[in-house]
Amino acid sequence: MSRLVGKVAIVSGSGRGIGRALAIKLAAEGASVVVNDLDAASVMAVIAEIEASGGQAAACVGDVTAADFGERFVATALDRFGGLDIIVNNAGYTRDGVIQKQSDAQFQAMLDVHVMAPFRILRAAAEPIRLFARQEASEGREVIRKVVNISSISGINGNPGQINYAAAKSALIGMTKTLAKEWGRFKVCVNCVGFGLIDTRLTQPNDAFDARIEIDGEAVKLGVPAGAREAVEAMIPMGRAGTPEEAADGAYLFCAPESDYISGEVVLVAGGLGI
To answer: Domain residues for 42?
Structure first.
């Protein structure tokens, strides 16, 4: 279990759920991981778990939508571990509603977290990656780096009640394909994973919507109506929702050395849903 020894990874939204599972997976394969979440306690719990297993991790607590977050996230990797090899743009949430009931703020919130935040992180990484690539080329070495953007089946096929989320996740696919062309010369593979129904706190049956998180001082409802969840599960050929670990494994495929000549691709991790 050492496919990523010597690699440095940053994973946004890795204090819980899929991000947490991926951070632990990358660390188990030998990568040093920068863990991020809004909640400091969640970040420190993931770091403690990684370190207890003999891995290395560092914290970058904060809101990915903050204007300075991208620079701070990248700087944490460089300052703590001296490099940057894997970038996973995972942080996000949903604020559902049919179009006639969506406010500008509700729509913009999805663009901020799912489009602007990854853009800023990648922009902050551009110059360090360029400099690393130039140095490696001068030494006659080829080092392959990875970017994995997390999209959704909603961004690929659309989903009623999610025009804001679907639009944002679709934009991330365009970002992926563009950056794959821009960064190929730097030996960076840029790919995208679209998740289907994965068991996280965002998808738990919650008819009362009594589970909430606070973002920018506003309470955001978590969960989906039980009937809606059952209807989606009934359409999944595999017959069930995926686990966070299964979702993380799908993203890991684009981080592993076996994908060193795959770039600009979009893959669904959805148990056959959406095919």
So the answer is: 8-200+247-269
